[in-house]
Amino acid sequence: MSNLEREAVPSPCGGRGFVVAEPVRELLSPRHVKLGESGEVRRLLPNLGRRMVGAWCFVDHYGPDDIADEPGMQVPPHPHMGLQTVSWLHEGEVLHRDSTGSLQTIRPRELGLMTSGRAISHSEESPRSHARFLHGAQLWVALPDGHRHTEPRFEHHADLPVVTARGLEATLVLGDLDGATSPGTAYTPIVGADLALTRGADVRLPLEPDFEYAVLSMSGEAHVDGVPVLPGSMLYLGCGRGELPLRAESDAGLMLLGGEPFGEELIMFWNWIGRSQEEIEQARRDWMEGTRFGEVKGYDGPPLPAPELPPVPLKPRGRTR
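Structure tokens predicted for Pirin (321 residues):
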């Protein structure tokens, strides 16, 4: 999914200087952002209070939206570089097309993982015949310097490992959790998991003390380490935890996001992650001139134009607040 804001601003990300090295409970509220002509998403990362969680650098939560009489998601072709996109659905379907020739319908609790590497473009749309409701999350993972120029690729994994406990079913989206490993390609120590809790569940989820974590609430009423987390909000948890208490007041859906704190300094502008002003300027020229990012074939409509660069220099920065 694209960042569709027409007046994009650079986001300073990365660097370990502001990683919280001990457990905290920092509740993050979303920023409401228009997606296309009629859609709206709740943006949790980057946030005024928190730029990254491990290598996770962008989190949008959308829906559930009733699109029975609407076209649903319609995101025209747009570019990415230096990151991975993770498409995750609870309801509905999304048709993915990209410049490598991939064409794939992504359904609930199936992983759509696109590694942009040096350059890719893609589109996302609800199929013409689609389910009534659309509900999901779109997330980005920053690629470390040693892998950010890799060849672009798309992965679809319909069969993902599941970790269970009484009242909990955890589907592993990316990385490792409690001895299970996702088939999705990861380039940093990371974890992403979908947590389905049944009403009355009271469990403790094992964590890696060296990772930092956050929990996104997708639906229902749940307490995370004693803190009520409502749908569309996210609780940042810091590092230093060996387990995470979870309690559900109703059936609830959460996403656990974590990883080793990302040590590099980044520039995130529009749909690109780079390390310098020159990289971002070149990416914009290449996209507007129709080179490098390839062509998305089969989408009915023109690609998105890139926003203008800001008048101030872009500088790579750390995990500033």
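The two ends are 25 Å apart (CA to CA).
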